[in-house]
Design goal:
The complex is a heterodimer of chains A (about 260) and B (about 15).
Chain A lengths: L1 E5 L2 H11 L5 E7 L2 E7 L5 E8 L5 E4 L3 E6 H8 L7 E6 L6 E7 L6 E7 L8 E2 L7 E6 H11 L5 E7 L2 E8 L2 E8 L10 E5 L4 E5 H7 L8 E6 L5 E7 L3 E7 L6
Antiparallel strand pairs in A: 1-5, 1-7, 2-3, 2-6, 3-4, 4-19, 7-8, 8-9, 11-15, 11-17, 12-13, 12-16, 13-14, 17-18, 18-19
Helix pairs in contact in A: 1-2
Chain B lengths: L11 E2 L1
Classes of the chains: A mainly beta (about 260), B mainly beta (about 15).
Chain lengths: ~260, ~15
C-alpha cells in the first residue's frame, strides 16, 4: 500500500511544470523515507534529481518500495485538473501497480476529483552522483539568476561562469558582440539582492544557456537558488523546497578550448 | 553537440 498526501498540491504541479521541458518520462521511487526521482534529458547532458521527504507530507505510507513509471506529458494533463489550493494524494494498493490514483480535494472538501494514470515500465538509467564538496557555491535570488540567464542568452548560446573570492562573473561572446554581468557578495536583507559566495577555489566553467533557462522554470519553487561548481565537474543547480525536499539539476560543462 | 561534455564522463551508471 502506498499513499502520499501533499497539503500544498501546488508544489507538485510546480515540480512537474519545472521538469516537463527537460525529461519525457520518469521513474518515481517511493520508499519509507519518501519519494525520489532521477532522470536525464535525451542527450544525457542534463539530469534532474528530486527528493521529497516523507515528513513533508500531510500523510505518508509506503509499506514496501515501489517504482512508478510516469509519462510527464500525461501527468501534466492530470495535474491541470487540480486547483492551486487543492491537496493532492497519490495512492496505489497494488505491489506491482499498473496505474496510480490521484485525488484532488479543495479546501472545503466540497469538491473531490479522482484520476487514475496508467503507469509505464521504464528501464532505469540512473547515474551514481557522489556527494561533492563543491569548491565554489553561490546562493542568490532565483529570479535574479533566471533574469541573468535570459538576458545573456540573447547574445550567446553559452555562458562562462567565473568565480573569485568576492564576485561571480557571467560572460558571453556572440556574433553581435560580447558582454558580462558581475555579481558581488551582498549581505543585503532584501532577498532579491542578497548574494552569498562561498569560494574555496575559484572556477571557470562554460555551460549551454538553453539548459540553464530550462532549469530556471523551477524559480516558482524557491526564491533562492544555489549554484554549485568545481573544476571539471557538472554544475549542480539546487532549488530547496521548504520542509519537503529539493529539486536539483546537473549540467555537464562545455568542452572549453 | 560536439563541444558539449556528456554526464557519463563524470558519473557512473548504477
Amino acid at each position: 500500500m502506498f499513499e502520499a498526501k501533499l497539503q500544498q498540491g501546488v508544489i507538485f504541479k510546480k515540480i512537474v511544470d519545472a521538469i516537463k521541458d527537460l525529461v519525457k518520462s520518469v521513474n518515481i521511487d517511493a520508499s519509507t523515507s519518501g519519494l525520489s526521482m532521477q532522470a536525464m534529458d535525451s542527450a544525457h547532458v542534463a539530469l534532474v534529481s528530486l527528493k521529497l521527504n516523507e515528513n513533508g507530507f500531510k500523510d505518508y505510507r509506503c509499506d514496501r518500495p515501489i517504482t512508478l513509471g510516469l509519462s510527464i506529458e500525461n501527468l501534466s494533463k492530470i495535474l491541470k485538473c487540480a486547483g492551486n489550493d487543492d491537496t493532492i494524494t497519490l495512492q496505489t494498493d497494488e505491489e506491482e501497480p499498473s496505474s496510480l490514483k490521484f485525488f484532488f480535494e479543495n479546501q472545503q472538501a466540497s469538491k473531490i476529483s479522482e484520476f487514475s494514470l496508467n503507469l509505464m515500465s521504464l528501464d532505469s538509467e540512473s547515474l551514481g552522483i557522489p556527494d561533492t564538496d563543491y569548491s565554489s557555491v553561490i546562493q542568490m535570488s532565483s529570479a535574479e539568476f533566471s533574469r541573468i540567464c535570459k538576458e545573456l542568452s540573447s547574445i550567446s548560446e553559452t555562458v562562462e561562469i567565473e568565480t573569485s573570492k568576492e564576485s561571480v562573473k557571467f560572460s558571453v561572446q556572440g556574433d553581435i558582440g560580447a558582454g558580462s554581468i558581475t555579481v558581488k557578495n551582498n549581505q543585503s536583507d532584501k532577498d532579491v539582492d542578497r548574494v552569498d559566495l562561498q569560494i574555496d577555489q575559484p572556477v571557470k566553467l562554460t555551460f549551454a544557456l538553453r539548459y540553464l533557462n530550462m532549469f530556471n522554470k523551477a524559480v516558482s519553487l524557491s526564491s533562492t537558488v544555489s549554484l554549485n561548481m568545481s573544476e571539471e565537474n557538472p554544475l549542480m543547480v539546487e532549488y530547496k523546497i521548504d520542509d519537503l525536499g529539493s529539486l536539483r539539476f546537473y549540467l555537464a560543462p562545455k568542452i572549453s578550448d | 553537440v560536439e563541444d558539449q561534455f556528456n554526464l557519463a564522463k563524470f558519473y557512473e551508471e548504477v
